[in-house]
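ugh finaly. both done.
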Amino acid sequence: MLGLLWLLDGALQFQPFMLTTGFADQIIAPTADGQPAFVAGPVHWAADLSVAAPALWDVLFALTQLLLGAALLVPRTARLALVASVGWALSVWWLGEGLGGLAGGHALMLTGAPGAVLPPVCGSRRRRLARPGR
């Protein structure tokens, strides 16, 4: 299931809007608003980096997600992909979602907190714990 979510996320990352500076300016950068410096600084850095070459970064993001999704669906690579998936999801949660607004004290589930990428992280942890003999 997690592999399918990453495949869907990677496919959605190829939307035309995501290939423009609007992705960084209107999606990533605003997540730093009202956040403490340890969240806002890295979020602004990620947004500035993405603005410099939006199509390149977006394609890299999308391909990473597609690769994670495909690797999770192949039994031979699933364990390594699961570890990589958690790392990728946490970096997206911090740099792309500003920790879901939790550090700024203005997070509401109604507005999307704690972030869209956190459930796959929790799901991957559950999957790992559910494996027999582990």
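ok and the 2nd:
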Amino acid sequence: MPRMPPKPNHLMIRFALYGCTNRPFNHIVVIQNRKNRNAKPLEQLGTYDPMPNANQEKLVAINFERLRHWLACGALCSKPVEKLLGLAGLFPIHPMSYITAQRNRKKAAEKEAEEKAAAETEKSESTAS
């Protein structure tokens, strides 16, 4: 049986999960694609805090100069990082961002309709009594 050539080893820009239980925190790092998620990276490009703060904001800090440097060197981005950079304006907006927004709007509309129906039934029950 012929030997298969080895898969290419390339650079990835991806999230490295830090933080603790129920409090995730991500570093945006450049790392070889075959390394473990939290292996020592070549460089840390930024941070991402997915938990909303008091103002309902998810905080992101990115060094765009170094990010452009690594992209010019041929590094590839993972899908979650592509979505984040699309929202930041560096890449085109990822199609899944539109789909997620549409799902969130639909879920909010359904929740609003449920609350409205519950309020109407409560109102009709109070007037009947």
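summary for the 2nd one i guess: The radius of gyration is 22 Å.
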